[in-house]
Amino acid sequence: MKIIITQSEAVDKGIWPQVMQWFGIGQDDDTWPSEEFILTEQQAKEAGLIK
Fold this sequence. Notes:
51 residues
């Protein structure tokens, strides 16, 4: 299973720092609020998005 989350959703859920780390995004990198990231099932579980 894959989970798609946008940058703004990740920020709202408080997992943006974790998503940044998984995808190698730095503080100076540009991202859009609607930019989508595909998480694995394991990543989604680690982030607390699914059980």
